[in-house]
Amino acid sequence: MANVTLRNVVKKYGVLEVVHSINLEIADSEFVVLVGPSGCGKSTTLRMVAGLEAISGGEVQIGGRVVNDLPPRERNISMVFQNYALYPHMTVRENLGFSLKVAKQAQPVIDDAVDKAAEILSLTPLLDRKPGALSGGQRQRVAMGRAIVRHPEVFLFDEPLSNLDAKLRTQMRVEIKKLHQKLKSTIIYVTHDQVEAMTLADRIVIMRDGHIEQVGTPLEVFENPLNTFVATFIGSPPMNLLDAVVKDGKLAFSDGTLIAMPPGYSQAEGQAVTFGVRADNIMPVGHALPHGEHMAEVEMEVNLTEPLGTETLLFSVLAGKEVQAKMFNPRPVQTGERMTFQIMLDKCHLFDAETGAALKR
Amino acid sequence: MATNMNHRIRRHSLKGLHFFGLFSAMMVLCVPGLWIVLNSFRPTVEIMAKPPVWIPNELNLDHYRAMFGGIGEGGVPVLTYFTNSLIISVTSTVIAILIGMAGGYAFARYKFKFKGGVFVALMVTRAVPGVALSLPLFIIFARVGIIDTHLGMVMAYVALNVPFTIWLIDGFFRQVPPELAEAAEIDGCTRWQAFWRVEFPVARSGIASAGIFAFLTSWNEYALASQLTRSTTSKTMPVGLLDFTSEFTLNWGGMCALAVLMIIPALILTFLVQKHLIAGLTFGGVKG
Fold this sequence. Notes:
- The complex is a heterodimer.
- Chain A is α+β, with helices and mostly antiparallel strands.
- Chain A has two domains: 4-227, Rossmann fold, CATH 3.40.50.300; 240-352, CATH 2.40.50.140.
- Helix content of chain A is 23%, strand content 35%.
- Chain A has helices at residues 42-50, 92-102, 107-120, 136-148, 166-183, 194-200, 218-223, 228-233, and strands at 4-13, 16-26, 31-35, 57-62, 65-66, 77-80, 154-158, 186-191, 203-208, 211-216, 240-247, 250-253, 258-260, 272-277, 282-284, 295-307, 311-318, 321-328, 338-344, 349-352.
- In chain A, strands 6-7-8-3-9-10 form a six-stranded mixed β-sheet, sandwiched between helices.
- The two termini of chain A are 40 Å apart.
- Chain B is mainly alpha-helical.
- Chain B has two domains: 2-68, no CATH class; 72-277, MetI-like fold (Orthogonal Bundle), CATH 1.10.3720.
- Chain B is built from twelve helices and no strands.
- Chain B has helices spanning 2-40, 44-48, 62-68, 78-109, 115-125, 130-144, 150-175, 178-186, 191-220, 223-228, 237-240, 252-277.
- In chain B, helix 4 (78-109) crosses helix 9.
- Chain B is flat, with a radius of gyration of 24 Å.
- The chains are: A alpha+beta, B mainly alpha.
- The A-B interface holds A 50-52, 71-73, 77-79, 81-89, 98-99, 102-103, 130-134, 136, 139, 146, 150, 163 and B 177, 179-180, 182-191, 193, 197-198, 201-202, 281-288.
């Protein structure tokens, strides 16, 4: 097991810079998830750690050792690919044992390690099949088995679940988490799915356009997003963002609606801000969760409903922007119905209208 | 009901048409071959008969006996021709496949300057008819002194086959996902090992088919060989067929017998490798 350090790591393709000098400390046996939209440089960063992409600048350390110029085989890592990359001409057993065979281990040692890995991932009945005869979920497990067989210092996962259907994805998510608890290994996991990131990670690294936007535990990034990008990227549905101006110590939206300033903020008169509130914190009267003392009320017309069972998502428009609200203990709602919504101000955020950076309370 | 009936009638008539079409196509393809085999076993009188005798009255091995017989009795140095053909075809195929693998892999995996241009240039060489090259080749080979040698023939056939094998193998390596080699590298392979232990076995069906094509091209080639070979030291079987022509007669029976001998190795090879020709080995390793 080992820690991983990225120091001012840069990736350039010719003149095009896709990863801009990122810094990251990953502790031993930590589960870190790199998350971000497509093209944000998360996979490239992972591939630089793996040694599959040359590092254009900066330094990557694994276990305190600079690995910039080491080939992948000397970095003591293993990787699970998005498309699994199983060797199609080998049986599952041979796939699992391949790395040990390349390392010229004795056959009994290989058999032993393969059997153990197969048992952990319940692959034992499939050992003599070829990858072509496996289902997507089984292939995924073989790919994971191939990674754990030789006890690497660091596991790298490159969007391993994105080719599975929704149900299987949830199952495999749990299995990956269990695997981490069992193996206590350092894991770097790349995904574009924020739910995966939230559920799996010890720490989340949110990336955009080759920059790291925020690093923190799932709850930290959920509760205290550093900017509007993180606020809308993490959490489902995304945080509602509304343009507002500070007026008489209150917030005025463009349609003239006034609400009280969220507690703790003291912004200058006339300052333009972005007001952020999650759907969980804006609820119709009578269908709200227990809440604190700082409340604001707005009236909105419901345009669309999405019943989810325990709650119903209500889509409305406030000051020209779409707002999603949650109705707990839901009752049927007609589109076009006007309802009064309560906003839990304690849970609201203010961002700088220009930079999108979170304002200090 | 009526639509159901109509549908069924249409399906049956389509099936009949398919069968008829396939039968005629196979007939056009197979009859000449069968005719050669048949002729190699029957007396010249019957071969030359007009109208043609479709059902043979008598089958014997006379033409084969004569072919393997002495010079005076219509014999030709079959074994020498066979050996020449084999040496030239196998050597040139092996070389063409090695170059094709290296080239095809490079075109499939690496970026380099003028890649597109080089590829097009290689393909353009295929557009030049082989016969057009025979005279320049003859002159060059004569000057260098490699007319009527195995070496000369091998060089000519390698040059003929390389663009084609590169093109074919490039296509097969393109179907092998690059992640396979990457996974192998992470599993502890060097770049070289990753190629031989993972990418090569996965693409071997494609390489085998490229090999067959190259072999058959060299094995069957006549136009160049007829110019560049002079004597039994390098004459290949297709050129050897001409031994059965003399000033006033054509020994059709003997020619057919030699042709049958030529076809046999090609047939055996195709049967041996045909299971590799079925692509699809690459499926399953990556997402399905």
